[in-house]
Write a structure and sequence with these properties.
single chain, 411 residues, alpha/beta, seven-stranded parallel β-sheet, six-stranded parallel β-sheet, 16% strand, globular, disordered C terminus
Length: 411
């Protein structure tokens, strides 16, 4: 029976951040179909605490500490003319494991999760190659370039250009390229050379949500947040990730003051691990609290009155939005943060892009509890009916065929 080799840039456990949530559920889906071998990285000691979970899911695995410093990766990338993310995620140990696994097991499919892991796919592998790009990473770096000046603009522009070249190379190598939404898929295709675009198999496999886990009826609201007066605005995520940092700073320093003009007791709450120094400096000031990593994000969402997601750079589908909606929170978000979520503005969530418009929608929802209650119910209903993980990953079964089916090898 053909087996699967799963290459992931981060260990898919625990599913506590966007990329790990997706890779976690995909790995579980693949493991339910047959034997899966996993090559992946640990970012820190806490990731090694999850090794037992990885061992349960995988037939075999190799977990390696990612230790290449960004400066070293940058030097290597300059010497090799490649994007920084390739040397940053390269390991001789993982490369040997991949070759040994291919030699010792009947691997029919290599599933590449995130483009930087495509470098481990041997040119002579004749089985099926699936590259899950998730979103168009090169576009994100183009946005970084426009937001910066001088050497930082050059660095980001270079990374964007080389990542775009690597995305095209992997799309040519893959039997199928996966993106997280129809918008990302269309953007990805449009950036390929015309001839390649015509022959590439580009498909959509979206993100889902575990609605039984993210259920407001199953958790107790966090007391330290629930007891505060006024509207309690929450932003969640990995707080050392540049777009999240920018969005959190925007909420705390630009949007919250506008809301407080109308609702003086309003407060904002930044919840997520590894907040950087700029965010920590805001803690306790002008109605802003920075809580850092918490045990259970659900209790914090349950204690908030609105989720606000003012992302200016947003690629793919935002898990933070789906989680808040599943918890029955009214969500005020930018159009970029709504990308790939087929919900209705004004019914399931509220879209606004300028600081003033975001603040106005926050105030309006607070002042109209009937509308807010209807949005809470509609948001939960939407994700339960349309965003479950089984529904989101159903296209994988069509792509891979019946479990144990033979693989059409490339010529």
């Amino acid at each position: 029976m053909p087996e699967t080799l799963f290459l992931s840039h981060r260990i898919p456990f625990p599913p506590d951040r966007g990329d790990k949530i997706r890779s976690h559920h995909i790995l579980k889906r693949l493991a339910a179909r047959g034997s899966v071998h996993v090559a992946t990285f640990a970012d820190d000691d806490a990731d090694f605490d999850e090794e037992a979970e990885l061992a349960i899911a995988a037939h075999s695995y190799r977990l390696v500490r990612r230790s290449t410093r960004l400066f070293v990766a940058g030097i290597k990338s300059l010497l090799r003319g490649e994007p920084v993310s390739l040397p940053a995620f390269y390991s001789e140990e993982l490369a040997r494991y991949v070759l040994d696994t291919l030699a010792g097991h009947p691997i029919g499919t290599i599933y590449v999760f995130s483009g930087q892991m495509g470098q481990y796919v041997p040119e002579d592998f004749a089985g099926r190659v699936i590259v899950d790009f998730v979103d168009v990473d090169s576009v994100k770096f183009e946005a970084y370039a426009w937001q910066n000046r001088g050497i930082e603009r050059w660095i980001h522009a270079r990374e964007a250009r080389l990542l775009r070249r690597e995305e095209a190379r992997l799309a040519a190598r893959a039997h199928t390229s996966l993106l997280i939404s129809a918008q990302e898929a269309a953007l990805f295709a449009a950036r390929l050379p015309a001839v390649q675009r015509m022959v590439s198999d580009i498909r959509v496999v979206g993100n889902g949500i575990d609605c039984q886990f993210f259920d407001p009826a199953e958790v107790t609201p966090e007391a330290s947040l629930a007891g505060l007066p006024g509207p309690r605005l929450i932003f969640t995520g990995q707080m050392d990730y540049s777009p999240n940092i920018a969005a959190a700073l925007r909420l705390a320093t630009r949007i919250l003051p506008l809301v407080q003009r109308e609702l003086p007791e309003a407060s904002c709450h930044i919840v997520g691990r590894n907040p950087d120094a700029d965010l920590l400096a805001l803690d306790g000031k002008h109605g802003c609290r920075v809580w850092g990593r918490v045990e259970d994000i659900r209790s914090w969402l349950a204690a908030a009155t609105q989720a606000v997601v003012p992302l200016e750079i947003a690629r793919g589908v935002q898990n933070k939005v789906l989680e808040a909606m599943a918890m029955g929170l009214p969500v005020v978000l930018t159009s970029g943060a709504a990308n790939g979520i087929a919900a209705s503005d004004g019914r399931d969530f509220a879209i606004a892009d300028s600081d003033e418009d975001i603040a106005a929608r926050i105030v309006a929802l607070h002042r109209d509890p009937v509308v807010a209650a209807a949005m809470r119910a509609a948001a939960r209903k939407f994700v339960v009916e349309q965003q479950s993980w089984p529904a989101a990953l159903a296209p994988l079964d069509t792509l891979l065929g019946a479990p144990g089916a033979s693989v059409r090898h490339a010529a």
